[in-house]
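Per reviewer request, we include the raw input and output of the structure prediction for the construct analysed in the revised manuscript.
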Amino acid sequence: MKKIGLDVGEKTIGVAISDALGWTAQGLTTLHWDENNYTTAKGPLREMITEHDVSEAVIGLPKNMNGTIGPRGEASYRFGKWLEKEFKLNVQYWDERLTTMAAERVLLDADVSRQKRKKVIDKMAAVIILQSYLDSKQ
């Protein structure tokens, strides 16, 4: 069974998927959604979860630099609880501090244009979140 990594923002959700053995994470897509209406993400997520036989979700948990949970972290917890209930997935949370900066650095090093970076940054952050989680389990 595969794992899905999610970088949940107010307007987009970066999505990554693991291989069947849980060794590597690959970027899948960036979903556009309305955080005030979870059903805007329900169909695309259901499709990916079914297609890839996903059993577990890893959600990036944005903590403040001092380790406390702020409004974005609370929003991630709400989304995770919805995901558990809606799709019957085991949900894990992974500290995502600095993952967007790391994703930006990877894309800059790859000489990706600013316009293209903007389109894939959330997907790349999801890859970093999921890969970090997978590495911790090895």
